[in-house]
UniProtKB/TrEMBL annotation:
Residues 11-65 form the HTH cro/C1-type domain. It comes from the Bacteria. SMART domains: HTH_XRE. This is Helix-turn-helix transcriptional regulator. It comes from Cohnella silvisoli.
Length: 78
């Protein structure tokens, strides 16, 4: 499984835990809703700026988001 797909799964999970729609998250992070959808489906690779913009709106640190993705990547490859 690719890092992009794992990132997308984590993004969707955290967004849903925050009870935000893709549209609301996109608006708050000043991104396009279709871009959020592409990220969640693993079709796009987020930049550091994007990760910071998203995590700021999801009440999670960028470091924690990367840690969650890294944990899943390591679990998948073992």
């Amino acid at each position: 499984m690719s890092i992009e797909i794992i990132f997308g799964q984590q993004l969707r999970k955290i967004r849903e835990e925050n009870k935000l729609s893709q549209e609301e998250l996109a608006f708050r992070a000043k991104l396009d809703r279709t871009y959020i959808s592409l990220l969640e489906r693993g079709k796009r690779r987020p930049t550091l700026n994007t990760i910071f913009a998203l995590t700021q709106q999801l009440n999670i640190s960028a470091a924690e988001m990367v840690r969650l993705v890294e944990e899943q990547v390591l679990n998948f490859h073992h």
